[in-house]
Amino acid sequence: MKTLKYCFYIAIFLVCLPILYATPVEDKSSEAILSEVRISRIPKIIELLEEKGTKALEAEKFQDARGYFQKALILRNAIGMKQTEGSAHILTKVSSIESKLGNQCEASKLSLLAKRIYRQIGVNMGAVRLEEQPTKAPQFACAENIGWLGD
């Protein structure tokens, strides 16, 4: 009887084990992070996303880096940090990544958005170096706005 009872407890534990496995917060979608996490923790998550994006960029995993930086920008926008120097810096990184991936149109738009933010907050444009100046894409080939950013 005791053996059956212990086998029952082990079976319950094994069934519940996958439920107990926690997915890191920064790997969830931005909507899930906003709905599940306290607002006071979001800046720390943004910092983690930026670190992961920088590491992915150094490892030349451009798709992953772009995803982390995009998620960080979406979270920054959601908590009211859209017009900040940090957001403009991330935009320049994403612009550089898009340029390396061959998305010149989106790279150009992101670069212009970053420059606009830098001007609005009063940063001297001579002190800010945009890493790679994307080539101008024809206007008719570009979409109206950047979908994931939600201008």
Q: What is the CATH C level class, in words?
A: Mainly Alpha
Estimate the helix proportion, in percent.
55-70%
Question: What's the number of extended β-strand segments?
Answer: 0
| Shape designation | elongated
Strand content: under 5%
The overall average pLDDT, rounded, is: 79
CATH architecture: Alpha Horseshoe
Oligomer: single chain
* Number of distinct helices: 6
Q: Can you tell me the residue ranges where pLDDT is under 50 for at least 5 consecutive residues?
A: none
CATH topology: Serine Threonine Protein Phosphatase 5, Tetratricopeptide repeat
Q: What is the structural class?
A: mainly alpha
Distance between the termini: 65 Å
Whole-number radius of gyration?
A: 21 Å
Summarize the helix and strand pattern as letters. Answer: HHHHHH
Instruction: Find the CATH superfamily.
Output: Tetratricopeptide repeat domain
Number of domains: 1
Described by strand count, sense and barrel closure, the largest sheet is: none
Short description:
This protein is mostly helical.
Write up this protein.
- The protein is 63% helix and 0% strand.
- The protein is an all-alpha fold.
- The chain has one domain: Alpha Horseshoe (Serine Threonine Protein Phosphatase 5, Tetratricopeptide repeat).
- Helix 4 (62-78) packs antiparallel against helix 5 and helix 5 (85-101) packs antiparallel against helix 6.
- The longest helix is centred in the N-terminal third of the chain and has 19 residues, at 2-20.
- The radius of gyration is 21 Å and the shape is elongated.
- The model has no long low-confidence stretch (mean pLDDT 79).
